[in-house]
Design goal:
By secondary structure, this protein is of the alpha/beta class. About 35% of the residues lie in helices and about 20% in strands. Strands 5-6-7-8-9-10-11 form a seven-stranded parallel β-sheet.
Length: about 280
């Protein structure tokens, strides 16, 4: 294996090259991702490769995290994810209503609160958001027990993300009937194969998302989404690392879909971001 240590903006990124290709380890500050799991995911990509895909392309959602809503940018997308959990719930309600108006009644709209609420707050806000016909609410609260309680109180489907980091967590999700979907990120789960095991243990549909990686990291999420037996939801593989990429032709969606393909860093971009000394 060959390692390349990079600095892209304020992010430390390690790229690993091996016989199977390239892998990325780039834990996002403040987001629950054990460095050992991130490293394991990168080594899997570089040395073992990924399971064979069962689909040639993956639908991806657009991401809205602030007002005003750009209706033109949402034209033709298969789904939209809206970041919520602001101090004033009225801001969330207004933003989601604007998104729904922009995309019309038939495009799935989901929201992601990043565990900003307690159960009681989540119940109140979700009831106010429910008239916008939400596909699901991702991470409204911080733990599986809280998520299971909330799910019994509201009719909007729930998705678990940061509270599932292992097969044991996934099994507990299934036992508690805590969620209607599980969100999978390759680096925090330790690789594509580990994530597939988590999806199987959870027993609910999976949604693959990224955590602001370069195209090397997004390619791992794409490989995971392409290998899942079923993929009923659009995936969140569009959030890119601010500050730059290492691939000359980055992984970007066309007509709301990412084509499954391998990517390789461009030597000049590696040189641009590599840390020396």
């Amino acid at each position: 294996m060959r390692e390349h240590r990079l600095r892209i903006g304020d992010r430390a990124v390690t790229l690993i090259a091996g016989p199977a290709g390239w892998g990325e380890s780039s834990p996002l500050p403040g987001y629950p991702c054990a460095p050992v799991a991130s490293r394991r995911a990168a080594e899997e990509a570089a040395c073992a490769g990924w399971p064979a895909p069962v689909r040639a392309a993956v639908p991806v959602n657009a991401l809205v995290d602030r007002a005003p809503v750009d209706a033109g940018a949402l034209a033709g997308v298969p789904a939209v994810k809206v970041k919520v959990g602001r101090p004033d719930p009225n801001d969330d309600v207004e933003l989601v209503a604007d998104v729904r108006e922009a995309v019309g009644p038939h495009i799935p709209v989901r929201v992601d609160a990043n565990a900003a609420w307690d159960v009681e707050t989540a119940e109140r806000v979700i009831r106010r958001l429910a008239p916008q016909d939400l596909e699901l609410v991702e991470d409204p609260v911080g733990g599986l027990d809280e998520l299971a309680r909330l799910r019994r109180r509201v009719d909007v489907p729930m998705a678990a993300d940061a509270c599932v980091r292992s097969v044991d967590d996934a099994r507990r999700l299934a036992t508690l009937h805590a969620a209607d979907a599980v969100v999978l990120k390759v680096q925090p789960l330790g690789g594509v194969r580990a994530a597939l095991q988590v999806a199987e243990a959870a027993g609910v549909p999976a949604i693959v998302t990224s955590m602001r990686e370069t195209s090397i990291g997004i390619a791992a999420g794409l490989a995971l989404a392409a290998a899942l037996p079923d993929l009923p939801h659009a995936c969140g593989l569009t959030a890119r690392m601010p500050g730059g990429d290492v691939v000359a032709e980055p992984l970007v969606p066309v007509d709301g879909r990412l084509r499954v393909r391998r990517v390789t860093p461009a030597p000049e971009l590696l040189a641009r971001y590599e840390v020396t000394g």
